[in-house]
Amino acid sequence: MIDTPEEARGTLNGTAVRTVLPPAETPAAPKPSAPRENRLRALDGLRLVAALMVAGYHYGGRDGEVVQAWGTSPRHQFPTLHHLFAYGCLGVQVFFVISGFVICMSGWGRPLRSFFASRASRLLPAYWAAIIIVTAVFALPVVAYKTVSPSDALVNLTMLQQPLGVDRVLGVCWTLWAEVRFYALFALCIVLPGANRQRVILFCAGWTLAAAIAQGVNEPLLNMVLMPEYAPYFIGGVGLYLVHRDRRDAYAWGIVGVSWLIGQHYAVQRLWHAPNPEFFSNRSSYAIVLVVTFGYVAVAAIALGWLRWANWRWLTVAGALTYPFYLVHEHLGWVVIKAYHRTLHLPSYGTFLATVATMLLLAWLLNRFVENRLTPKLRTALAKPRP
């Protein structure tokens, strides 16, 4: 029997002997786990900037149903700024670049169940609340805007209303459909087999090539899955996360560069048109490229640590408000604009600022009473392993 870790007893030719064993090796202290990356608060601030860009577009950079809220076209409400507001739609492209960065960062080293739980719990509580609120408000007799049917409103809770051809409750939900497809591709190709640099590079290169082929053959199924028009922004964000991990990674910079070249092409192709008085506003192709470039450069500056100094706590609050603000600002903004401008007779610019402030307040309420309460519970329920 072994008496101590250092000695053992036995016999040799019937004589008891004591054998001294070498000291047992002291177990090595466990290596400290890699510290979690500090929250990139500048990224939260950039999210809010992108959301405000989109709000500027919806309130003052286009015609459509917002005309009913103002009483006249926003070009008459904002004779000087409506040209600038028209570029606010490019905030969506900025969002997609941010999303590529964030999803790669959050999915790296995370099991599939945890990744799914994180994404679902982040998106669904505020989204469900926004669907219910907008449907209820539009159903009021005093609101002139038409609500969707009860059946369509229920389908909207699934986030699958677009491929199912169902009327949308939220105008901005088309971007969430793009996000969901990106999450699915990333989960299947990266999270499920396990994230590493080589796999992510192959994913970015393969998606870029496949999206270009889908665009060339114009096959509807491939276009729906591969999203040629939006893929460059997600891929560029993923490439920038690789840059964040290693700023000298030539492959990562190559991914970013190619994505920017393709992304600016799609933005110009979609948003530029020859000067025509029939259109709301004539966007310059140079300005479109400049705004797209701003999105890539801003995320690159964060990835490289150049904006590490922007570490103010209020930016975290801004980041928390961005998603619920984005969900509710358009349709409910129409109702608020009409109340402030045509009922209370606030001037145009005062109405614009008051509407943004009101939507931020509603976003804060959604974050505090919906997201903060339901997100942890939903995440725990989805991440809990089942026997």
Provide structural commentary.
This protein is mainly alpha-helical. It is built from 15 helices and two strands. The protein has helices spanning 41-60, 66-70, 74-77, 82-85, 91-107, 112-138, 150-156, 173-191, 197-217, 220-226, 231-245, 250-271, 285-303, 313-343, 348-383; strands spanning 7-12, 15-20. Strands 1-2 form a two-stranded antiparallel sheet. Strand 1 (7-12) and strand 2 (15-20) form a beta hairpin. Helix 1 (41-60) packs antiparallel against helix 5 (91-107), helix 5 (91-107) packs across helix 11 and helix 9 (197-217) runs antiparallel to helix 11 (231-245). The longest helix has 36 residues, at 348-383. The two termini are 41 Å apart.
How are the SSEs placed, and which strands pair?
Layout (H helix, E strand, L loop, with lengths): L6 E6 L2 E6 L20 H20 L5 H5 L3 H4 L4 H4 L5 H17 L4 H27 L11 H7 L16 H19 L5 H21 L2 H7 L4 H15 L4 H22 L13 H19 L9 H31 L4 H36 L4
Antiparallel strand pairs: 1-2
Helix pairs in contact: 1-5, 1-14, 5-8, 5-11, 5-13, 6-14, 6-15, 9-10, 9-11, 9-12, 11-12, 11-13, 12-13, 14-15
